[in-house]
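Lecture notes, part 5. Sequence design as translation. It can be helpful to think of inverse folding as translation between two languages: the language of shapes and the language of residues. The source text, in structure tokens, appears below.
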């Protein structure tokens, strides 16, 4: 019995850590919505900005993908829209975990 409960406890802990590592798609999309990102981006349609699926494809397998995207959505780099340069919008969050979740969600598409 002791072994059984140890096993149950171990699998429970594993499930909890997997849940923690998984991307929270709903939270990611809610934050993108709140930050007006969908004004220029859709998941798989081109708007003023590239679709997130295309971004995921572009960065697939690149070790610095998370770092690059995090900088892109937090440091307001200049981007060109219809031939006009403007500052890219920043994500409306200062929480590193929330930002990471958004970046990982985009990369998972
Ligand atoms: C006014 C329009 C506009 C808004 C609003 C906007 N973007 Fe963008 N975004 C662009 C454009 C244009 C590009 C392409 C830039 C380039 O390739 O030089 C881009 C590129 C990106 C990329 C790809 C960067 C790369 O290195 O390939 C990501 C990721 C991204 N945006 C995320 C976001 C997020 C997150 C938000 C909300 C905080 C957001 N965008 C809001 C226009 C916008």
């Amino acid at each position: 019995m002791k072994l059984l409960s140890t096993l149950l406890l171990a699998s429970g802990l594993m499930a909890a850590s997997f849940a923690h590592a998984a991307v929270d798609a709903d939270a990611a999309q809610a934050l993108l919505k709140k930050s007006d990102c969908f004004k220029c981006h859709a998941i798989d349609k081109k708007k003023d900005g590239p679709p997130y699926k295309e971004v995921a494809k572009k960065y697939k397998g690149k070790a610095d993908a998370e770092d690059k995207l995090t900088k892109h959505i937090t440091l307001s780099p200049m981007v060109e829209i219809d031939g006009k340069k403007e500052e890219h919008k920043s994500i409306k969050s200062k929480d590193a975990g929330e930002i990471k979740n958004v970046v990982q969600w985009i990369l998972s598409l």
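The translated text above is only one of many valid answers, since several sequences can fold into similar shapes. The CA atoms of residues 20 and 52 lie 23 Å apart.
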